[in-house]
Amino acid sequence: MPLQFALCPGRMIGGSHPCFIIAEIGQNHQGDIQIAKKMIKMAKDCGADCAKFQKSELEYKFSKRALERPYNSKHSWGKTYGDHKRHLEFSHDQYRELKKYAEDIGIFLTASGMDEMAVEFLHELDVPFFKVASCDANNFPYLEKTAKKGRPMVISTGMQSMETIRRVYKTVKEHKQNFTLLQCTSAYPLDPKEVNLSVIKTFQEEFPDVPIGYSGHEQGIYITVAAVAMGAKVVERHVTLDKTWKGNDHEASLEPSELAELVRAIRLVETAMGSPVKQMLPCEKTCHDKLGKSVIAKVAISKGTVLSPDMFAVKVGEPKGIPPENMQNLVGKKIKVDVKEDDSILADMIE
């Protein structure tokens, strides 16, 4: 049984607990705190467990030259990449406001700490768990320092090799038991042939004491639902209020109706997963009573006859008799009564 732990206060993941659904707002809020609040509310209304942002301390995440380079993309919010990122970055006070708003409406809030100083702030903000973005999955000093903070961790694995993920597991495990690994391919939007859901099974086999999840950037909901059917215990999807808005992530994001349908579909699949024990269920009794087949006398059989296979047929009988799977057990036994051709053979007819 995979490890189970509280990812957020009162919310367990792993084992048979419901899949934890993260609505990744990222920077799809366009730098507007009111839009951010609308998106938090949307995530709550759609049934997601958590609304997530991306927090950077820009001078710690980017070099000066990276911030100064011209940024002429149609998605740009400024002349330089630094101007663009500053437009999209909320202040510490704004994050405190957003966290309080999320608490007031009853949804968890966290963020990917995109650099070590951002993690320090998120720790001060008292987020329920740290999200490690794929771009930091191979940043081992960052992973070690983050794990030592003591909070649960959700780690995306895009752009990494299996060898690196083994190192991630070992590094984090030394300092923190409660973490999850998400299969992820870092492309936006993601072509289905590059999703590689099979890695979920690889992770489950390689790391049996860690809940495994999925972070998706594909369009639509079907692949994420399939991930849950494969055992993903955490899923993360980017969300937006409008896919046509300016920004690289909107096209690979889910609008409110899609997020709501994803949540409904995941919960339906979880219900349908049911028990691993194969048995006839009470709900099948009506069908079994009507259509279930029995052992029937293929010929008339006289009292005292030793039964042989050529005496049996399998039909829907009335009354219902011995089930076909037990037919071989009748061979070599004696019948206690006369049985007419096409009558059911009943258990109390056998010596």
UniProtKB/TrEMBL annotation:
Protein's organism: Astatotilapia calliptera (Eastern happy)
CDD domains: SAF_NeuB_like (cd11615)
EC number from the UniProt entry: 2.5.1.57
Every AFP-like domain range: 294-351
Entry keyword set: Transferase
Coiled coil stretches, renumbered: none
Catalyzed chemical reaction(s): aldehydo-N-acetyl-D-mannosamine 6-phosphate + phosphoenolpyruvate + H2O = N-acetylneuraminate 9-phosphate + phosphate
Protein name: N-acetylneuraminate-9-phosphate synthase
Domain of life: Eukaryota
GO molecular function, one term: N-acylneuraminate-9-phosphate synthase activity
Any single Pfam family the record assigns to this protein: SAF
GO BP term (any one): carbohydrate derivative biosynthetic process
InterPro entries linked to this entry: AFP_Neu5c_C_sf, Aldolase_TIM, PseI-like, PseI/NeuA/B-like_N, SAF, SAF_AFP_Neu5Ac, SAF_PseI/NeuA/NeuB
